[in-house]
Structure formats: C-alpha cells, structure tokens
Amino acid sequence: MNYHVLTLFPDMIVSGLHTSILGRALEKGLISLDTIDIRDYSMNRHRRVDDYPYGGGAGMVMAPGPVYRACEAAKARIPDGNARVIYLTPQGTVFRQDMAREFAKEKHLIFLCGHYEGIDERVLSRVVTDYVSIGDYVLTGGELPVMVMIDVISRLIPGVLGNEASADSESFENSLLEYPQYTRPEEFMGEKVPGVLLSGHHANIERWRRNQSLLRTLQVRPDLLKKARLDKKDLEFLRQVLQSKEETEPNS
Ligand code: 6GU
Questions:
Q1: CA neighbor of 166 nearest in space, from 21, 11, 4, 49
Q2: Which H or E run includes 93?
Q3: Is 142 exposed, middle or buried (0-12, 13-18, 19+ CB in 10 A)?
Q4: Do residues 61 and 119 touch, judged by C-beta distance below 8 A?
Q5: Checking phi first, is residue 179 left (phi over 0); if not, alpha (psi -120 to 50) or beta?
Q6: pLDDT 10s digits, 231-251
Q7: pLDDT tens digits, residue range 204-228?
Q8: b/e per residue 102-116 (b: at least 16 CB within 10 A)
Q9: Mean confidence (pLDDT) of the chain
Q10: What confidence score (pLDDT) does residue 174 get?
Q11: CA–CA separation, 28 vs 57, rounded Å?
Q12: N or C: which end of the chain has fewer CB within 10 A?
C-alpha cells in the first residue's frame, strides 16, 4: 500500500506515522508514505495558498490552483496516474471498519487535507472521489483524520501486525466489542483474575469471553448487536441478562 498525502503540514504526518507498528511497517516496505506540501504548488511569491471567501464570512478558503497542481504531482508519482482521492471533511461519509476494508484493497491512495474554512468547491468536484469524516465533531484540519485512516487501513495489510490472527479477531470485525484482558499478577490490589481464565478449560474460556463481549456490547453499544451474527447460545445468554435485569430494576 502506498499512501500519498497532500497537506500544508507534512512534518505532522511524517512524525506521527514513523512510530511504533506503522514505523516498522514503513521500514519493512509493507506500506510507503509520500507527503506533498501543497504550499510548494503556490504560484504566489509569499507561498500563499488561501484567500478570502467570495460572499464574505469568517475565515479563509484554500485556493483551487495549488491544490489542483499538488494533486497532479501526486498522480504523476503513481504508475498508471490513477488513484482514489480522499478528502477529509466533517461533511463526508463517516469512516467505518467496512470502509477501511475497501480502501485496503487499493495499491495507492491519495489523501487531501484541508485547513481554514475549507477548499474551493471547483477543485474538490474535479479531483475528489471520496469524502470522508472520522466522526461527529470538528477538527482544525485533515491531518489527524488522515493519520487515523492510515492506521486503521494499514493494520489490515498482511504482515503489518506481527500476529496475523489479531486483525480480524478484534472489535468491529464481528460487530461486537472485545472482551476484557488480564495478565500477571494473578492478584492486583486485592482483585483476582477471573478464575475461568486460569482453568485451562478452553471451551469454557471461549464461552466466558464471548459472553463478556455480548455484555459489553449490550451495555455500551446496543446498536452494534443488530449487525452482529449471533447464535442460539448468544441469544440465550442475552435473554438471561435482560431477564435478570428486569427482575432487579423492573421499570428501567
Ligand atoms: Cl475528516 N476533518 C475535520 N476538519 N474535522 C473532522 C473530520 C475531518 N472528521 C471529523 N471531524
């Protein structure tokens, strides 16, 4: 996977992604990161890339010219000159795990980071293929969202996570939240590790973990249960939980 990031702050992207697991993936060549400084494509002698909004109003707008030329430069670095161009914006479709799985199939992805009050609509409509938001809140720019997306997509690429099994066993891949984890010591501040985990009984451990996942999802993200694939044992467990809840707090 080759990432190309168009930004006014390339250092932020480079330093943010050259750490930990993604740093290792970059070293190993499993992913590559190419940053393009939009300011390098300003034709202005002060390297300005923004201007006042037509129609008035607060803030500045990124001009179309530098963004367009930066995007052409990114495409020129890609063998067939063709790739999806993802614009990070709170006006986009909310990024989810299934979207990450689709993006992970591509060989090249171009990300466009906006700043100020946004980017001139005429360049967006010409170059952008995907408008993506990372959630319902407003950030100052697209740099953090790009790092989030690159992290999520990269961990789906074979070899990036040391342990091949872990990428799909985790939360959201099966629409359930993860079960709690424990390590040594066996007792911490008077609290013992759940006994079943020390039993060595693999079927019981698996059932306990599954039930913990169901319980957490029911408590924190009941909306996810609609998408989850649940078997008879899962449904029986959830029925019991809801029934005992009804007995202890009848009118909740
Ligand atoms: Cl992609 N950009 C900005 N500026 N704010 C956001 C966002 C993106 N996603 C959520 N909030």
A1: 21
A2: strand 84-94
A3: buried
A4: yes
A5: beta
A6: 999 999 999 999 999 999 998
A7: 999 999 999 999 999 999 999 999 9
A8: ebbeeebbbbbbbbb
A9: 95
A10: 82
A11: 48
A12: C
Instruction: Specify the residue with its C-alpha closest to ligand 1, atom 2.
Output: 89
Q: Looking at the predicted structure, is the pLDDT value of residue 27 above 60? A: yes
- The DSSP bridge pattern shows strands 61-62 and 50-51 to be antiparallel
- Banded model confidence at residue 165, pLDDT cuts 50, 70, 90: low
- Dihedral (C-alpha) 183, 189, 194, 200: value to the nearest 10 degrees? 50
Q: 134 CB less than 6 Å from ligand 1?
A: yes
Determine the distance separating the centroid of ligand 1 and the alpha carbon of 89, expressed in angstroms: 5
User: Which residue's alpha carbon is nearest to atom 8 within ligand 1?
Assistant: 89
Name which of 15, 25, 132, 6 is nearest 70 in CA terms.
6
- Residue 163 is predicted with a pLDDT of 72
Which amino acid is residue 168, in one-letter code?
D
Instruction: Give Cα separations from 149 to 6, 34, 88 (angstroms).
Output: 14, 15, 10
